[in-house]
Write a structure and sequence with these properties.
By secondary structure, this protein is an all-beta fold. The chain is 0% helix and 57% strand. It has no helices and 11 strands. The radius of gyration is 14 Å and the shape is elongated.
Length: 121
């Protein structure tokens, strides 16, 4: 099994910054694509950013130029640097990691427990 532990959420004023981190542990042979999603109250979960194992990053339009996703494969960590935060960025943020538990084993998507980000004055 694989566990993802997120940290870094909190309350921040508009224009401020936060850095979210997600650390994976457990039976991990390889990590493939990683990403961050968010879900605001009354809305569906949406993709915020994804970073492939090949280093290609993709962002949701509203966060382009403000958010940056990164990964540290040695530490099994995924991060999301969020700058110039806006009230509409308020949501629960979830990390997602594609993990292969061993050679010849399937790649499985794992999710973190979510961390609350609130942007308010």
């Amino acid at each position: 099994q694989v566990q993802l532990v997120e940290s870094g959420g909190g309350l921040v004023q508009p224009g401020g910054s936060l850095r979210l981190s997600c650390v994976a542990s457990g039976r991990i042979y390889s990590i493939y694509d990683v990403g961050w999603y968010r879900q605001a109250p009354g809305k569906q979960r949406e993709l915020v950013a994804v970073l492939t194992s090949g280093g290609i990053s993709t962002y949701e339009d509203s966060v382009k130029g403000r958010f940056a996703i990164s990964r540290d494969n040695a530490r099994k960590m995924v991060s999301l640097q969020m700058n110039s935060l806006k009230p509409e960025d308020t949501a629960v943020y979830y990390c997602s990691v594609q993990v292969q538990g061993g050679p010849y084993r399937p790649v499985i998507d794992y999710w973190g427990q979510g961390t609350q980000v609130t942007v308010s004055s």
